[in-house]
Specification:
Radius of gyration: 19 Å
CATH superfamily of one domain: Immunoglobulins
Structural class: alpha+beta
Strand order of the largest sheet: 4-3-6-7
Helix content: 10-25%
Largest sheet: 4 strands, antiparallel
Strand content: 35-45%
CATH topology of one domain: Immunoglobulin-like
Length: 108
Amino acid sequence: MKGLWKGGLTIATFGAVSFFIGAAWAHPPFCICKMIDATMVGCEGGFADGTGVPGVRLDVVRYDETIILQTSFGTDSTVSFRKPDGEFYLLFDAGPGQSFDVDYKDIQ
């Protein structure tokens, strides 16, 4: 009986952990960036459930991994910055498993 309870607890614990991991992935983040004018980029970030991302970090990074600018989303979940010369990408980092990049070619 003792072994059965231990196994039952393990299955229940695994099920609870799986539920919370699934819930974390249920609302993936997004970051949409557009040219405001010829020199400025504007980005809006959030999660698929409509939650904003105030304070979430956004880095502007060169292809050689040099960070050009470290910034974060404002209270309205937007951020703007001067477009750097050359090739770069934006690194959106909302936490473990919640980061991705936006290449400069995808900013229109």
